[in-house]
From TrEMBL:
MF term (GO), any: protein serine/threonine kinase activity
Residue ranges annotated for the Histidine kinase/HSP90-like ATPase domain, each copy included: 10-119
PANTHER family: ANTI-SIGMA-F FACTOR RSBW (PTHR35526:SF3), ANTI-SIGMA-F FACTOR RSBW-RELATED (PTHR35526)
Name of protein: Histidine kinase/HSP90-like ATPase domain-containing protein
InterPro entries assigned: Anti-sigma-factor_SerPK, HATPase_C_sf, HATPase_dom
Pfam families in alphabetical order: HATPase_c_2 (PF13581)
Keywords of the record: Kinase, Serine/threonine-protein kinase, Transferase
Length: 129
């Protein structure tokens, strides 16, 4: 089962729609226990791609067996950096820290002229509920 959406540069209004589609896929596959975390991490990666690059992005979520993999592609060559958030920096700088803390695995890989930032979550046995 897969979700694939192309998002225009700075199209932040698409983020809730991506979350909703992801939630539907996870619920249909018995991934209720990881839905909140999956939505949060997907929101972080999609928002980073749309705000911190000047390019379109594509989000792909794949459920296989009991594992969710979300990938966000963009055509910016620079890789995101994990940084320690500064207390007085509002909400900036926390996205990748959340991904690192909550995902079972995550990473960044070069893809053509751009990159893919991804994470995986164990759905705890998976299968329809």
């Amino acid at each position: 089962m897969q979700l694939r959406r192309r998002l225009g540069h700075a199209e932040l209004t698409a983020v809730p729609e991506v979350r909703r589609a992801l939630r539907e896929i996870l619920r249909s596959r018995g991934g209720r226990s990881c839905t909140d975390v999956a939505e949060l991490l997907t929101t972080e990666l999609v928002t980073n791609a749309l705000v911190h690059t000047e390019h379109d992005a594509e989000v792909t979520a794949t459920v296989a067996a009991s594992r969710l993999r979300v990938e966000v592609r963009d055509s910016a060559g620079s890789h995101p950096r994990l940084r320690v958030p500064v207390a007085d920096d509002g909400t900036h700088g926390r996205g990748l820290v959340l991904v690192q803390a909550l995902a079972d695995a995550w990473g960044v890989r070069a893809q053509g002229v751009g990159k893919v930032v991804w994470f995986e979550l164990d759905m705890g046995g998976g299968g329809p509920a």
